[in-house]
Amino acid sequence: MKVQIYTGSMSLVAKSGVGQAILHQRMMLSEAGVATTDKWEDEGPIHLNTVFPDAALTAILARKKGRKVVYYGHSTMEDFKNSFIGSNLLAPLFKKWITFCYNLGDVVITPTDYSRGLLKSYGIKKPIYSLSNGIDTRFFAPSAKARRRFRDKYRIGDSEKVIISAGHFIERKGLPEFVEMARQMPECRFIWFGHTPLSMVPLAIRQAIETAPQNCLFPGFVSQAELRDAYCGADLFAFLSSEETEGIVVLEALACGIPALLRDIPVYSGWLTDGENVYMAGNDGEFVKKARAMLDGSLPSLTEAGMRTAQSRSMRATGERLREIYKKEGME
């Protein structure tokens, strides 16, 4: 069996979690002994990861050829909201469109039980499975050399505390809250990795970036290698997003052994637990309080438990689960 992973419009999502998920699917299938291609095949399953019109058309053509279509449900109406200018106004139409797209699949795969519940509530009639996007635990792993590279590049002293985050410049990712943390914790360095053209984001996001204190840095989009170095070299990963379907950066951070502080939101239910493998907070004041306690050792380290969580979602583990879905749905 050879699986086609459709890469149309890849240039539009390459710097996003969806782009990473496409790369991960190749890796997990390879680990499971399944060959993949990005060229059109006349038979065999095809993976679709975007809801752009070209992907929907490809699904229709594949179905006409009698091929099985695996549609990945990376997007929901809920995580479309509070993103770009006009996203809240367009959200109901977006919901209708993604429901149409996902119903073109024979199978829908979405990263978590939380996102599976959302998609089921949309009235999608196809089987929906929850399967993590996975993490390359051989690449994302603790490294003293990576830590040194990061600290040398950003001229960070060994005793200086650094808090990082990653994501697009969109409201739901918690960028304004991250900037406010930096303002309240001048004793620490704050670095946000990622970029979105400021013309696409609301005024509140532009103002947060433009008025950020001197201890808050925005280096822009960086390579996976540089982001891995940052995970290894920082003292805390603060991911303040208010809505996710999974959060690949969370898995990356946990795999690198960095303490993680997350917003307490439903998507983490069942696999991340406050006080067990991560710490969680519900408001700005609590974020600052917990961050300080994590940095000064008042709260015990949970990095070993976090790394075990990431290992359970390794490429090999997710590849085996994906192959089980194939078997169950008669794709092998």
TrEMBL record:
Molecular function in Gene Ontology: glycosyltransferase activity
Glycosyl transferase family domain location: 147-297
Glycosyltransferase subfamily 4-like N-terminal domain span: 46-138
Stretches that traverse the bilayer: none
Protein name: Glycosyltransferase
Natural source organism: Candidatus Faecivivens stercoravium
Domain of life: Bacteria
Cited InterPro entries: Glyco_trans_1, Glyco_trans_4-like_N, Glycosyltransferase_grp1
